[in-house]
Design goal:
It is a single chain. With 481 residues, this protein is an alpha+beta fold. The protein contains 14 helices and 11 strands. It is 47% helix and 9% strand. The chain has a 5-stranded antiparallel β-sheet. A 4-stranded mixed β-sheet has the order 4-8-7-10, with no helix packed on it. It has a two-stranded antiparallel sheet with strand order 3-5. Helix 3 runs antiparallel to helix 4, helix 12 packs antiparallel against helix 13 and helix 13 packs antiparallel against helix 14. The longest helix is centred in the N-terminal third of the chain and has 49 residues. About 5% of the residues have low confidence.
Length: 481
């Protein structure tokens, strides 16, 4: 007779076998999934690395001639660096945005147009791809070297017909003459393709604002659009033309060739940017309430002015790229043409430091962040003199604060004088006229110590106005006989 079968043991063994099978299958699936994930991760990493290597590969468009020009002049124009399909995509979105302005309740609608047009587009792929998917970034890399970094947004800079212009009839008979002289003087020297003389002013109904070419600036210096209390220098300005700007006075970028070297010298002679912009970069420095910042820029401009030659209006076509050193003095030309000038600017900062940081060493040595052309410095890097030990700008800041204080004294005494006149009491008037005279004397003393001719003249004129005002009030209050 056979032994009874133990069904419970058999069921348990079946369950163990099924569990082992499931565990084995699970391990195989897990291993397969992990292998696929690892493969996908490796593929992504390879793609990212390939993109990086491709993005930061020096562009073959940059020649030795380009490098030498950039080293000496501080800028260069590279032809046909951005393909048409990228430009068309960007233009389509920009024009769509111009035709459909942002609603007034959108915070971006409050962005000043002088900073950028179409602010909602500045960080979108259609704009950023102009830099990343063209030869533009590779051109920058050829000059900067391995420190080249991407920009995550661009400035959409449009210049409309009539910008920086006044109607010719407002200037009378001088209008056409002034416009023609501006076109001849500035149009006779231009940089870029097809840079032949043209005079668009002759057919326009307006002419340029006087002395527009003297209103140069350096991005990131203290001023109307940088009130952060610090200098924000970057490495390179990259401008991508979306429309032609070949003729002069077409809203062209206008530069002062070699000014990056001139400004470097002035900064070094003054003890470096930290000494020049001490009220900006040192907490509590300068003792002023923002005035020393403007004074620093004024003094710099005054000292650089004798070194500056004629400005150059950059002549370029759609698809061209303009590379400019951060420290290159530049401005924008009026637009007397019938066309909008479309351009997108990108500001690249060397990888060694954060964006919008203050790097005085890169201002002391304008080739510090340009490994690709450092060896081309005019005169050689070894000729760089040491920074000046003295700090003339600090003395100038102190004098500026003293002058401002003296002007405040005069203003306060003027207020006392006006109050005395209103009260019509001889005692108050005698006291006021005494304080007032002392204030005028201080203003005249400040004018005598002022080196800047314009400031000296202004102070003396102010003092004369105050004295004339005092005399007229004195006659007014004098007892009649």
């Amino acid at each position: 007779m056979s032994a009874p079968t133990n069904n419970s043991n058999s069921g348990g063994q079946d369950q163990l076998g099924l569990g082992a099978l499931l565990q084995s299958v699970g391990q195989q699936l897990r291993q397969e999934v992990e292998a696929r994930v690892a493969g996908a991760r490796a593929s992504v990493q390879e793609s990212v690395q390939a993109i990086k290597e491709d993005a930061f590969k020096p562009s073959p468009l940059i020649t030795e001639e380009h490098k030498h020009q950039f080293a000496n002049d501080g800028f260069v124009v590279v032809r046909d660096a951005v393909p048409e399909h990228l430009r068309r995509l960007a233009l389509r979105e920009i024009n769509r945005s111009l035709g459909q302005p942002l609603p007034s309740d959108n915070p971006l609608s409050k962005v000043p147009k002088v900073l950028t047009r179409c602010p909602e587009l500045t960080a979108t792929p259609v704009i950023v791809d102009l830099l990343r998917k063209s030869e533009a970034l590779g051109c920058a890399h050829a000059l900067i070297g391995d420190g080249t970094s991407r920009a995550h947004f661009g400035q959409i800079a449009l210049r409309f017909p009539g910008d920086l212009c006044v109607p010719q009839k407002a200037m009378g008979a001088l209008g056409p003459v002034a416009g023609q002289l501006a076109a001849q003087w500035l149009g006779s020297r231009r940089a870029g393709p097809d840079a032949q003389y043209a005079n668009p002013v002759a057919e326009a109904g307006y002419t340029t604002v006087p002395s527009w070419e003297t209103r140069w600036h350096i991005d990131g210096w203290p001023g109307l659009f940088n009130q952060t209390g610090k200098v924000e220098n970057f490495t390179m300005l990259v401008g991508i033309l979306l429309s032609d700007a070949v003729d002069p006075l077409s809203g062209n970028l206008t530069v002062y060739p070699g000014s990056h070297l001139h400004i470097e010298k002035v900064l070094r002679d003054a003890g470096g940017p930290e000494a020049v912009f001490a009220p900006v970069t040192t907490p509590g420095g300068g003792g002023g309430s923002g005035d020393p910042q403007a004074e620093s820029v004024r003094l710099l401009r005054e000292r650089v002015a004798p070194m500056m030659g004629r400005p150059v209006q950059v002549s370029a076509r759609a698809g061209d790229v303009v590379l400019a050193h951060y420290q290159l003095a530049h401005t924008i030309a009026p637009n007397v043409s019938p066309n909008i000038r479309y351009c997108v600017y990108f500001r690249l900062t060397h990888r060694r430091r954060p964006v919008k940081s203050f790097a005085p060493d890169a201002m002391n040595d304008v080739f510090l962040e340009y490994a690709g052309i450092r060896h081309l410095r005019p005169g050689g890097s070894a000729d760089l003199p040491p920074l000046a030990a003295h700090a003339p700008f600090a003395t100038a800041h102190q004098q500026h604060d003293q002058h401002r204080q003296q002007q405040r004294v005069v203003a306060e005494t003027a207020a006392v004088l006006e109050a005395a006149v209103a009260a019509d009491t001889a005692q108050q008037w005698d006291r006021a006229i005494k304080l007032y005279s002392e204030g005028v004397e201080k203003l005249l003393a400040a004018a005598a110590a002022e080196r800047n001719h314009t400031h000296k003249t202004t102070m003396r004129e102010k003092a004369a106005q105050y004295l004339n005002r005092a005399e007229s009030i004195k006659l007014q209050l004098a007892p009649t006989t």
